[in-house]
Every structure is written in C-alpha cells, then in structure tokens.
Design a protein that fits this description.
Layout: E1 4-7, E2 10-13, H1 17-27, E3 33-39, H2 41-49, H3 51-59, E4 62-65, H4 68-76, H5 87-101, E5 105-109, H6 114-126, E6 131-135, H7 141-154, E7 158-162, H8 167-175, E8 182-186, H9 190-194, H10 203-207, H11 211-218, H12 223-226, H13 228-240
Parallel strand pairs: 3-4, 3-8, 5-6, 5-7, 7-8
Antiparallel strand pairs: 1-2
The structure holds uridine-5'-diphosphate (UDP).
Uridine-5'-diphosphate binds at residues 109-111, 137-138, 162-165, 167, 188-189, 191-192.
Length: 241
C-alpha cells in the first residue's frame, strides 16, 4: 500500500514526480478506469463542503501533492511530502512518458482552440506525441455523446480532462467509468498554460511557495476562490489542536 498523508480527510500520496509517473504507467492497461487527481488547498477545502468530491478523491488511484498549501499542511502535522507534484508538470512528464511508452493520449477541455495550441506547443518541445484525439471543453449534450464515442474508438489509454475542479473529477467518474485499462486525470488550467495563454510563476516564486500570489496578480478575479487559502490554513491549524 502506498504511503499517504491525510490533509483534512483527503488522502494525498507521498510521491515524487518520478514515482507519480511510474504509478500511472503501472495503472495503464490494468482492469478498470483509474483516476489521478491533483490536490491543492482549494480542492481540499471544496471537499470539506462537498461530500461527493471528498468520496471521489478518497477513491482516486493517485492524488498528488499539487499545491504549496498541502505541503505546508503536512508539515503542521509533523509529516512531509518529498516535493510538489503540480498538475501542470505531471501532465508534461506524462506526455513524455506516453511518447516513450507508446501510450495513446486524448485531451479534452479548454476554450475553443486552446487544446490544439497546447498540443502544437507540446509537440514542438517533445516531438511527435501519440495523441489520438482532442476536443475543447465546451460542448452540447449531443456533442458529448460523440466525444465519448470518439474517446472509446480512439483506444486512448491516458485521458486528460480540463474542466476545472470539481467538474472534471465528476465527469471522469460519471462519464468514463465504463473504460477499461484507462487512466484519466483532471488537469484544470494546464492546457491554458501549455498553450501559452497563462504563464506559470517564475521558478523563484514556485520554490518560495508563492505561485498562488502570481496567479492572483495575473487573474485578480480569482480573489474569491483564493479566500479558500486562509480558510484552509485556519482549518488545518484547528485540526492540529
Ligand atoms: N473549462 C472547460 N469547460 C467547462 C469549464 C471549464 O473546458 O465547462 C476549462 C476552462 O476553459 C479552463 C479550465 O477548464 O481552461 C479550468 O481552469 P481553472 O484554472 O479554473 O482550473 P482549476 O483552478 O480548477 O484547476
């Protein structure tokens, strides 16, 4: 059994980036649908009020420590994660691993044109990728039926879904449950970053756990969502008492 740290009842795997990629590779091809989630303070707080999200995360096959907040929370509990494994970086590493291991990839989500641009940029950087299909994240119910058929027909073994939390996690559990030997991962705004629409914080900010601040400066509208961070710190502190 893999080692986990519980942050406010959300089990988060104690893994490095290399171990996370390895785990995904071992899941590909094994029976059932497997889900990977990327935990940050906002997601953990959402799961406190959303029982369905909490259960989905508790049943996920891999939950990586995405945010600086969860690393901080572990330290408050006298535990520690080896490193941050961000969704954006994990997506990048998994695309490389998919290429090396001939694993078929499907990418779903983002505004019109974003995922196409993201994949063009990734191909320019990593070389030809085994991408068997992609679609934007805005579609009708009729189009959704075709997208699901397309995913199934494509034989994709790795499906990245970018609808934001918790929509992507619920969609994976509800719409992809019938797939076999497939790993699906919610990647939030990662296609926006890959497409060059959204910049990652400079490395010094990432290392100093200030990525949230950079994101806030770029997207001030996120202020309401980011109020989850102080609430999270308070909840972790209270949990410790
Ligand atoms: N999105 C989408 N379909 C939807 C809702 C959202 O494709 O119905 C996309 C949106 O364009 C954006 C991503 O989902 O690219 C959500 O990004 P966000 O940064 O909000 O994700 P989170 O912070 O939840 O990881």
């Amino acid at each position: 059994m893999q080692n986990q740290i519980h942050v406010l009842s959300v089990p988060i795997d104690v893994v490095t980036m290399t171990e996370a990629v390895q785990k995904v590779l071992t899941l590909v091809g094994t029976p059932g649908l497997h889900m990977v989630a990327t935990a940050n303070a906002e997601m953990v707080m959402m799961a406190q009020e959303n029982q369905k999200l909490l259960e989905v995360l508790q049943k996920a096959d891999l939950v990586v420590p995405d945010g600086a907040g969860v690393l901080w929370a572990a330290e408050q509990q006298g535990e520690s994660f080896p490193e941050r494994v961000t969704g954006c970086d994990l997506l990048h590493h998994l695309l490389q691993a998919a290429k090396d291991n001939h694993i078929k990839v499907y990418c779903l989500g983002g505004a019109e044109g974003v995922v196409k641009q993201a994949l063009e940029n990734a191909t320019a950087e990593l070389g030809d990728l085994p991408v068997v299909g992609y679609h934007s994240g805005y579609f009708t119910e009729e189009e959704e039926v075709d997208i699901l058929k397309d995913i199934e027909r494509s034989g994709a073994q790795l499906v990245f879904v970018a609808f934001g939390v918790p929509k992507q996690e619920f969609w994976i559990r509800e719409r992809l449950a019938h797939l076999d030997g497939v790993v699906a991962m919610g990647v939030g705004g990662s296609f926006d970053v890959m497409a060059g629409m959204l910049k990652r914080a400079p490395l010094w900010m990432q290392r100093n756990r200030l990525e949230w601040l950079y994101r806030l400066l770029l997207q001030p509208k996120r202020i309401i969502r980011m109020l989850a961070l102080p609430k999270f710190m308070w909840a972790v502190w209270r949990h410790k008492q």
